[in-house]
Amino acid sequence: MNAASATQIETDSTPEAPAEDVYVVFTPSGRRGFVPPETTVLDAARSLGDDLDSVCGGRSMCGRCQIQLSEGEFAKFQITSRASSISETTKSEQRYAEKRGLKPGRRLGCNAKVLANCVIDIPPESQVHRQVVRKRAEVRDIEIRPVTHLHYVDVREPDLHDQSSDFRRLCESLREQWPNWGIADDVSCVYAVMTSLQKALRDGAWKVTVALRGNDRVVGVWPGFREKIYGLAVDIGSTTMSGHLCDLATGKVLSSAGTMNPQIRFGEDLMSRVSYVMMNPGGDEEMTRVVREAVNYLATQTAAEIGAGSDEIVDLVFVGNPVMHHLMLGIDPTELGGAPFALTVDTAVELTAAEMDLYLHPGARVYALPCIAGHVGADTAAVVLSETPYKRDEITLIVDVGTNAEIVLGNRDRLLACSSPTGPAFEGAQISSGQRAAPGAIERVRIDPETLEPRFQIIGTDRWSDEDGFQETVEELGISGICGSGIIEAIGEMFLAGMITTDGMIDGALAEKSDRVFPDGRTFSYRISDTVSVTQGDVRAIQLAKAALYAGSRLLMDRLGVESVDRVVLAGAFGSHIDPKYAMVLGMIPDCELEHVVSVGNAAGTGARIALLNGQARKEIEWVVRTIEKVETAVEPRFQEHFVGAMALPHKTDPYPKLSAAVKMPVPRVAVKSGEDGGRRRRRRG
User: I want to staple 118 with a disulfide (CB 3.0 to 4.6 A). Which of 85, 224, 449, 559 is the partner?
Assistant: First the structure.
């Protein structure tokens, strides 16, 4: 077997290896398979369909093929990845490092050779099709009441007749010149202010700008007049992270940045990362270090965009699911890996930036929103703060769609929350041609129900595949796969076109009508493009994910005692790109008027911004979280019942009358199994 013929493996466990070959897993893509020993990492990536970059032809010149070996026990893949799994550093790499520099742990993929089973991380800058982090700052009216304010004061100079300290006179000036702010009598200061105060006063000719946190703590002093201080709102997703730099006085978002969560090389999903911690001593510290480095990166990038430094950021608010929350705080998440899923802390947490190894202003503080339950985190609390269902009369269902879906249901009278294990299929993982959102990925699909011919869009262009100019874009970007929103629309369109039965089987009889439908082993697949097809396994993966999502929602409806919801909110970076029509067609969410199903984008990031810019909002969400009723799906017997019913499209027993009134639904049909040869199957009406 040669590298070019290596087979990609889609299962989580290591299959039986061909003779002498080694098993390689690439993150963050999840591409994996066997390659012969001594294959370079670059060749292995190419043979397994991963997008490791290189422009110099493997001559150690461009440095674009940088990779990093992930060491440790990886239970999900049933392999141990060691330093000895790849070859030693070559002289070419040493020369490159001396001339151009290599980060610690980085190797050149064109030089490093695979010797044994291993996990290889491809950092964002080495990816041909880089992840599109679509967590933009949503437009929102926010009442600006920041925790930290600027106050310009003229401080009385010292003299021999008044032996009071510079800090005492500074505090007196604050109270005298800002009488309506209720500044406390016992104002304190951070250490950094103490050591730099005298120089700031004298450099400013006794006129300084003071950053006051609350009404009783000085966290910064600058010579002369200063107009702006900054805060950073960070959403730590398990896959992607985003940061929004805000002017604390006006609330304006000055810049935004996103990055892949570097923890993904330790595990694609949350439980894989918890497993890594359990099997690798010090694994939690390693994951804490890399996620904090990523936050530092976001701080540096956003500040640099406006010509500032990260040391000018005085306040940071972050949100994340419980595992991300704990790891960011430096807390071992092991207890979250099994029942009863105990949180270390579920209240809000406030620390200094220095305590968290963040390179912000010396007086900066970090605030983490409270978690709701063991699998419903601070990110969901932020979504609740953003969408305020606790202030509404109508029954609102909020679904934050991700690897693990968080669900909130209720109104001003009562709120319930749970999480549902949807898995990574909605993000393109576990899909045969799946990938995360990146240029070249199919993200929109339409299918003619008469001819079964598709038309589609890819990320990177607004043109559809049947429009002029599309082919030129494809020649530049290529069609690299299909992302989460693309697979949702593709399967939804296939169902509406009658290609998929109610129980999720691709109708092989339609192969006579169109060569787009073709035999694929013992089942059938549908070809969207020359490189992307939807397989029976893809349909099943989406069925499993959407059934878990629906079951969680329905379980909360049972507990609340309602048969329908008035409003559905789709949150999250993925949720913002789902067309509500297709979410309903597939039965991802309960039946609702389509015009009342809305996508709100990165609501967790919006909630983080609200908490950053409004100190009262922090108190508000801390109170709301204490009132939310937590439902654990793992111990609820009806969850499985709802799950089984939701495997059908859109549902086995729920008639979806509101959807049917808005969308022409196909006549319900279910597959009737015949022979084992994957031939045509008879159909019967449901």
Answer: 85
Question: Residue 341, Cβ neighbours under 10 Å: how many?
Answer: 17
In the predicted model, is pLDDT for residue 546 greater than 70? yes
Residue type, 207: K
Burial of 87 (0-12, 13-18, 19+ CB in 10 A): middle
Q: Which of 615, 599, 132 is nearest to 383 (CA)?
A: 599
What is the C-alpha to C-alpha distance for residues 77 and 272, in angstroms, rounded to an integer?
9
Mean pLDDT score, 90-94: 92
Half-sphere exposure of 412 (CA within 13 A, CB side): 4
- Quote the percentage of the chain above a pLDDT of 90: 66
**Residue 111's pLDDT band (boundaries 50, 70, 90)?**
very high
Q: Which tokens is 620 given?
A: 């508000």
CB 479 within 8 A of CB 458: yes
Q: Is 158 exposed, middle or buried (0-12, 13-18, 19+ CB in 10 A)?
A: middle
pLDDT tens track for 152-184: 999 999 888 877 999 999 999 999 999 888 999
d(CA 229, CA 301): 16
- Beta carbons of 136 and 601 less than 8 angstroms apart: yes
pTM here?
Answer: 0.81
The candidate with the shortest Cα–Cα distance to 456, out of 436, 473, 432, 431, is 473
Secondary structure tally for the chain: helices H, strands E:
17, 33
The alpha carbons of the chain give a radius of gyration, in whole angstroms, of 28
Listed residue (499, 495, 520) closest to 509, CA to CA: 499
What confidence tier does 137 reach under pLDDT thresholds 50, 70, 90? low
492-521, pLDDT tens digit by residue?
999 999 999 999 999 999 999 999 999 999
Which tokens in the block code for residue 84? 């000895």
Average pLDDT, the chain: 88
For residue 604, what are the contacts with CB-CB under 8 A and spacing of at least 6?
235, 237, 319, 379, 380, 382, 383, 386, 400, 571, 572
Res 575 pLDDT > 90 = no
- What is the rounded distance in angstroms from the CA atom of residue 686 to the CA atom of residue 684? 6
Cα distance between residue 86 and residue 108, in whole Å: 11
CA dist., res. 620 & res. 608, Å (int): 13
Q: What is the pLDDT of residue 268?
A: 72
Nearest to 353 by CA among 318, 385, 378, 381: 318
Q: Using CA of residue 528, residue 8, residue 55, residue 119, what is the dihedral sign?
A: positive
Per residue in 95-134, is it b (16+ CB within 10 Å) or e — as a string? Answer: ebbeeeebeeebbbbbbbbbbebbbbbbbeebbbbbbbbb
Q: In degrees, to the nearest 5, what angle opens at C-alpha 588 toward C-alphas 549 and 502?
A: 120
